[in-house]
C-alpha cells in the first residue's frame, strides 16, 4: 500500500521528477528567509525587494490555484511575509 502511494506521488504530473515540484519547494527558502528577517530592524528592510516578493506571491498564487497546491501555498506565504515586511517598513518610515 505504501509503495503504491509512493509510486503515485513519484509519477504525478507535479511530482518530484518535474520542475513543478522543485520550483515551489525551493521558493520556500524565500519565505523562510523573510520570516527570519522579522527580527531585523525595519530600517534594513528593502521596499523594492518586499514589493517583488509580495507581488510574485499574489501573481503565482492566482495562477497555481487549480493546478499545483504546493505552488499556491508557497505563493500565499510569500505574499503574506512580503506584506508584513512592507507594513513594518511603512510603519517605521511614516508613523
In a nutshell, what does this entry contain?
With 95 residues, the protein is mostly helical. It is 74% helix and 0% strand.
Structural notes for this entry:
With 95 residues, the protein is mainly alpha-helical. The chain has one domain. The protein has four helices and no strands. It has helices spanning 2-10, 19-36, 47-63, 69-94. The chain starts with a helix and ends with a helix. The mean pLDDT is 90.
Query: Mind telling me the C-alpha Rg?
Result: 16 Å
Biggest β-sheet strands, sense, barrel: none
Name the structural class: mainly alpha
Mean pLDDT: 90
Helix content: over 70%
Number of strands: 0
Count of the separate structural domains:
1
Report the β-strand fraction as a percent range: under 5%
Low-confidence stretches: none
N- to C-terminal distance: 58 Å
Tell me the layout of helices and strands.
Layout: H1 2-10, H2 19-36, H3 47-63, H4 69-94
Helix pairs in contact: 2-4, 3-4
Descriptive labels:
mainly alpha, 95 residues, 4 helices
Amino acid at each position: 500500500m505504501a509503495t503504491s502511494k509512493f509510486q503515485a506521488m513519484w509519477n504525478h504530473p507535479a511530482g518530484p521528477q518535474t520542475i513543478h515540484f522543485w520550483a515551489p519547494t525551493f521558493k520556500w527558502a524565500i519565505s523562510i528567509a523573510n520570516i527570519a528577517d522579522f527580527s531585523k530592524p525595519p530600517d534594513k528592510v528593502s521596499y523594492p525587494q518586499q514589493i517583488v516578493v509580495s507581488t510574485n506571491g499574489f501573481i503565482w498564487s492566482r495562477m497555481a490555484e487549480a493546478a499545483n497546491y504546493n505552488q499556491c501555498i508557497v505563493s500565499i506565504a510569500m505574499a503574506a511575509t512580503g506584506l508584513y515586511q512592507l507594513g513594518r517598513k511603512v510603519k517605521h518610515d511614516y508613523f
